[in-house]
Amino acid sequence: MINKLISIFIFFTTFLCIIIAVAAKACWSGGWTINVANEINSPDKLQVHCKSKNNDIGMKELGFHQSVDWKFCENIIAPSTLFFCHVYKGNQEQVFDVFNHTIKQLCREQDRSKDYWRCSWLIQADGIHFIDRRDGGEKNIKMHDWKNIERVF
Ligand SMILES: *[C@@H]1O[C@H](CO)[C@@H](O)[C@H](O)[C@H]1NC(C)=O
Known about the structure:
Elements: H1 2-30, E1 31-38, E2 46-51, E3 56-62, E4 67-73, E5 83-89, E6 92-99, H2 104-107, E7 110-111, E8 116-124, E9 127-132, E10 139-144, E11 147-148
The protein binds 2-acetamido-2-deoxy-beta-D-glucopyranose.
2-acetamido-2-deoxy-beta-D-glucopyranose binds at residues 96-97, 100, 102-103, 143.
């Protein structure tokens, strides 16, 4: 009887340890940090609103060299996270994905001290740029143009 209780106890303890290990690993192997920076040297601030289906980073006002940063962990079973940002600059705007299945293959660079992968976006005067870190270096690539905001009268 006692032996049986001990086996059940050991079984559940092991089971619990595996669950905790898997949950912790989700963030260890799939932790991402996203960074969207205003690189337009102008006194006018940018409005940046980033979100995913479940997470709203909120509307942020960014001056020159300021950025919005956030971290998240992907589900390791079926990773399908998508974050997008709506950026407003005077009478121009753009909406684009900052994290999707395609782009995450290009931005991965591990921040070794923090164990997070990083995707960096630069908002520039001529459009939206992205840091391509595929080859270990950093290549600034223009990804999206600005769109004029259509005014409806
Ligand atoms: C993923 O994001 C990139 C960068 O914003 C974009 O160019 C691309 O169209 C997106 N891919 C999909 C499948 O939406």
